[in-house]
Amino acid sequence: MIDVLIVDDHEMVRLGYSAYLSIQDDINVVGESENGQIGYEMALDLRPDIILMDLVMEVMDGIESTKAILKEWPEAKIIIVTSFIDDEKVYPALEAGAAGYMLKTSSANEIANAIRSTYKGERVLEPQVTDKMLERLTRKIPHFLHEDLTAREMEVLLLIAEGCSNQEIADQLFITLKTVKTHVSNILSKLEVDDRTQATIYAFKHDLVK
């Protein structure tokens, strides 16, 4: 039997899950709690196999309760079951250590299957949550060419933008003229520009010059 603790501040939700799960041959509801604080205490006392945890509750919310439980009992398996699908709820819950994230729009049968999967050691995520995670992971972050410059090359670029000659750059940075020329060549290549003028325009365009 898979022992389950239900933590949710809505009595009808608790009763609904409890009624359905109790008729399953392999699931046993060992307790119900109306807030995260009591849920935390019951979890450590009962040590259920799975905890169904709501997110928004008074006294202690689901994320705080999840963190508190896992701090005292790292092996606990907690499935968040909530109505929220926004990033500020999903990611903090997963970062807190939740083993799964399901929505209350899921059917009771889907919740039961999530319990079974989590009990086996699998991570369960509502398809909408999986989609959001993939979207976040694949979201393109703008990459600027100057981010490839070394710290020294950035110094040289800023001096170029100030109108300094190679010799003046060498004098200011206490490096050889040959080294400056090498840096300038690398800068032009990395910024994909043809000459110092274009490099200067790039620096001003991207607000690199203070």
UniProtKB/TrEMBL annotation:
The keyword Transcription regulation applies. It comes from the Bacteria. Keywords: DNA-binding, Phosphoprotein, Transcription, Transcription regulation. The modification 4-aspartylphosphate is found at D54. The keyword Nucleotide-binding does not apply. Residues 3-119 form the Response regulatory domain. One of its GO terms (biological process) is phosphorelay signal transduction system. GO terms for molecular function: DNA binding. InterPro entries: CheY-like_superfamily, NreC/VraR/RcsB-like_REC, Sig_transdc_resp-reg_C-effctor, Sig_transdc_resp-reg_receiver, Tscrpt_reg_LuxR_C, WalR-like. PANTHER family: TRANSCRIPTIONAL REGULATORY PROTEIN YDFI, TWO-COMPONENT RESPONSE REGULATOR. This is Response regulator transcription factor. It comes from Jeotgalibaca porci.
